[in-house]
Amino acid sequence: MTNDAQREPAGLDRTPSQAAPSGDYVDHLIGMATRLGKALLPLLVLYSVTALIYYLFKGYVAEFHSDSAVKNLLAEEVIREGTYFPHDWNYVNGDLWVLFGQTFIIPFLPFFPNGFALHGVSGLISSFILLLSLWWTSGMVIGSRWMRLFVVTIIGGGIYTLMAEHLFGQVSYGNVLFLCTLTLYSGWRLLESAGRRRFLLWGGAFAAITVLTFWGNPQRAAAYDLLPMLAGIAAWSWGRSDLLQWRAGGRRWAMSAELRRALLVVAIMLAAAAIGTALHAYAISQVNNASGAGSARWLSFDGFLANLKFTLLGILGTFGAIPSEGTNVMSLHGVYEATRLVAILILLVLIPLAAMRFLNGARPAARMFAGVAVSGMLLFVFLQVTTTTPDMNGPIVSARYMVPSLVLCVFLVAGYAEQMGVRRLSGALGWGVLLVLAASFLHPNNSFSRIYRGQPESIHQVQARELSRRGLSYGYATFWNANVVSVLSEGQVKVRPILLQNGVPLPHRHLASNEWFRPSAWSGRTFLMLNNEERASLDRSLLAQLVGEPIDTFTIRDFEVLVYPMNIAERLPGWNVARTRDGSLAAPLTVLSRHQVGEFEGTGSGSGILRAPAGPSGFLHFGPYLEVAAGNYELEILVDVPDTVQAGYVEVASGGGRAILASAPIIGPTKKVSLAFNAAKDEELVEIRVFTNGKVPMVLRFISLTPAGKQSSPATLPAPAPTSEPVPGQPATSAKQ
């Protein structure tokens, strides 16, 4: 079958003056505008490409953050461990990053320092794939090549800071979008392929892309690819011919060739999805993963109404259409902001109009594109409004989930404007929206405009330079001030993410490697870098008891840097696991010991007990996510329970709580509970949970973990790990999705 874009009605690619040569003044103006636009388009494309490259290699550094830096650091861990899915890495929300930014950094790491330049190379490759996929797919709904190039250039121009961040900076949803568009394009070509060779070619491409998307994250792939594609295939099939035909001779209904082809494509996609899901299930079982945004919950009806408002706010904010509070309405900038707000509101009105036109049209390709774009948009608006998927404390940032569908809907409206022309009101409004979006190149809040505005030096660039100047190579800071400095310093200063619990640093294992927090990772001076707010929550006296006084202290703008003569991971509870002579894993229960109910009783950094009164139920102890070698172990706990009742239970869990290795009830009175369990692999993260049902008071006195066959001693486990680890009954959350 021929390409639908080539079968467009002959008049569609004509200018209005060519399509209806009336010779009047309006037609003359339209023709002049069209010719001028086509003449200027190459310059717009050149500017867009130049601004994009500048943004990726220099302009984005002002917004570069630790989530963006993760792709560099994950690539480094892939090389270090020699496996594409590093065992020590802590994934979040089931995202395996099968085809992501780190993929394009790995080949360069043996030859170049792991710095911001490699992040730019990764972004450039991702951007090329994204824009190429949009070019291919746009032909399904837009007839003329110059119009397709115009709209792709608009998207490639960044539009607004948040849109540029999602598509080209961090590339988080740029990656999602190009996988979605490649799925759509290959699926369409498969549906309309003529001949066995083309069918096998496009069938293989379609299946491979589907396997990759589901291998990375089946839940996300179902939402962005499978469900919209099913809607798109249904739209493609509808209206081509009678889907079921009555065979009088055989006295039966028979499927049309189009319906058989559509069902075959659906079968290929479902089979590929099943393979990808199986690969994901196997891979995720071999690595560390914490659940988060995937654990969505329904909201109340009042929550629906609140989120509906926030969803609209998020869409407007993503396009930079929210006027700055306090701006003079009658100023030039105020008029521009009003125009931009009206344009995006018109865009939202035109999306359903364009969808209805294409879904009722004769072109199967356009129907399929509209089906995918609109169903995807409706799905994510539904999730935004009715579930806890978005964090509406930041509705504009949470609108990132809708970015892929919003971009496709821009192409849908562009195709609609092309068909309707400027003589009809809806067509003229569509063209107006596209021109306002094209003017985003001049928007001061579009990151791409830094190519002519310049940019200030970021605080993290200052930190990387100053830490390196002082000869510091390894240290710790909170998440948003850690990974970013590691990459900006090109690996010369490695800063590992921590959080503060009870005034003391603990590892933040969110999108990080467990190796970073082992004392063996670094020998020599280390530093702790904290901003003003973090310094206020630091318990300096307790920290001094644990690791000693710093040998140097200095500031970098609003950050204080504490320098220690050794790696503080050697002495901080919950970081290092000391072994006693009899083989037990020893460290006292301290004020850092984690619990949902009850209180710690003790002083300073010394050992103590955990006491819970009757009434509240919950975990009197959980954590500490201990790294143990593969083998058999024996756990003993000593608890005080006043009556002969079942007061709770003790269990050993691993894999972020997904696997229960052993469990036993706690029945009073004072009781020593013993458990035997097996750690299946080296450095398994093991968690000890002591649960009280609240029927009677409970006191936890010690926990002893000993390799099988060794004599136990009343030694207790280390203080628990950071809050980024899974908490019983509470999903671990991402700092930024």
Automatic annotation (TrEMBL):
Transmembrane regions: 39-57, 116-134, 146-164, 170-187, 199-216, 262-284, 304-322, 342-359, 365-385, 397-417, 423-443
Annotated segments matching region Disordered: 1-20, 710-737
Keyword Plastid: no
UniProt feature, compositional bias: Basic and acidic residues: 1-11
Record keyword Transmembrane helix present: yes
Biased composition (Pro residues): 717-729
Protein origin, superkingdom: Bacteria
Keyword annotations of the record: Membrane, Transmembrane, Transmembrane helix
Name of the protein in question: YfhO family protein
Taxonomic source organism: Stenotrophomonas oahuensis
